[in-house]
Task: structure prediction
Amino acid sequence: MRSHYAWLPPHADASTTGAHQVGVSFSAHTALERRAGGRTVRGDIPPGTAFITGPDAISWLGVAEPTEALEIYPDPGLLAGVGFGTGRPCIEPAAGVRDGVVFAVASLLKRAHVTGAELSDIEASTLSHRLVEHLGHVYQAGARAGAPPAGTLGPATLDRVVQYVHAYLAGPITLDRLAALAALSPYHFARAFKSTTGMPPHRFVTATRLETAKAALVGSPRPVTEVAQAVGFGNVSHFRRLFHREFGLRPAQLRPPHRRPQPGTAQHRKNRPSPSAPGCVTVAR
Result:
């Protein structure tokens, strides 16, 4: 499994998301136009949105906001092991979806890109298998939805939990409430959620809050305090500490017009991506 991370400035020229990949936009975009398979679509893209491509690449027709994205290219051998067959995988394209498993895997890989924190061999192979099994269960062409693997959440249940998290970021989100959405006890829900996504529930909620806050900081002049409160952080000092730990820079460093990481920050040193040469990490099977 390979992953490519990029943080790109606004650009008028068309850019491309490759075929047969799984991507996540960590940045927000308004009325962004994309073309795939002969169709052109215009729409908003919230942070954390996933794009699963089939044989057709996606062309982005001019991007007015900074772009932070991660593309994952799953291992063909692992895909064959879950029923995709040989050759190119028959993945049903899905554009602009909320997918908790894809978001969690992409967040963990992005952190490795941004902070330089290496994944161990067992962590890397676990992520690879988790993503491929999820693709086989949810996006395989012609597949019929069956019972989820033992100890995991089904796609519909996970979607319900993810939608709730996004809808109620500003308020308290409790383990009891998330467990109730899945009709499980808090203990069994926490275990099943981590087995499904690779993240415990509290880490997933925090990652969603931080990514949403980062997109707001990049895209608007709203005060840091207001942004923190809008995503559920009543303690702004705590928000700043978590933000710096996760992204390697302070919230104020994303204020317009300084929308890209500045020279000297960890993110700038480790990632100098461009549309033709994004940062790349190869994950072992």
Q: What stands out?
A: The chain has one domain: 2-282.
